[in-house]
Specification:
Strands 1, 2, 3, 4, 5, 6 and 7 form a 7-stranded antiparallel sheet that branches. The chain is built from 4 helices and 7 strands; from the N terminus they run H-E-H-E-E-E-E-H-E-E-H. It is of the alpha+beta class and 173 residues long.
Length: 173
């Protein structure tokens, strides 16, 4: 007889508020970005360094600055832009035209860090190309944090272009 009383007591106790589970707290609202760089500030900074920088172009949620450095024009694309216009990651990129081979691009990627290249096949070897990219996640606020990545980008971009020119032979230089 004691067993049914025990089960009844346990059943009543399980329904008591002391044993009830509390729901999980609601997820926190997204916090506005507190790090990154404002595109207009980055443009002003690049112009101050002597760059010929076009107005920002928006496409697909990103904003891109085109820098007309000759002979190696390049772009700086800003992603993940949030509160106060701060964008917390950027991508440097440049496009190269052929003749370029997949072997050249593979050799570059195997032997070098930071700047990564992608082969773009063409209808003929002479029309093949490449895209070079360097991604940077920004961890502070302001344009000062672009200084080192920009130096790395320009050094690596020049090295990549020289490697392509050397592989193409004296006629391409």
């Amino acid at each position: 007889m004691r067993l049914p009383v025990l089960f009844a007591a346990l059943a009543l106790g399980a329904a008591s508020p002391a044993f009830a589970q509390t729901p999980a707290p609601a997820p926190a609202a997204p916090v506005a970005a507190t790090k990154g760089v404002v595109v207009a500030d980055a443009r002003t900074w690049l112009i101050g360094l002597g760059g010929s920088v076009a107005e920002p172009a928006a496409e697909g949620g990103a904003q891109t600055l085109t820098i007309a450095d000759q002979p190696l024009p390049w772009t700086l694309t800003f992603y993940n832009c949030a509160g106060a216009g701060l964008c917390d990651d950027v991508q440097f990129s440049a496009v190269f035209s052929g003749p370029i081979t997949a072997e050249q691009i593979n050799a570059w990627n195997r032997d070098n860090r930071y700047l990564k290249a992608f082969f773009v096949p063409g209808a003929t070897p002479e029309t093949a190309g490449a895209v070079a990219q360097y991604d940077v996640v920004l961890t502070a606020t302001g344009t000062e944090q672009l200084q080192e990545p920009t130096v790395i980008w320009l050094q690596m971009l020049r090295q990549f272009a020289q490697g392509l020119a050397q592989a193409a032979g004296p006629a391409a230089q």
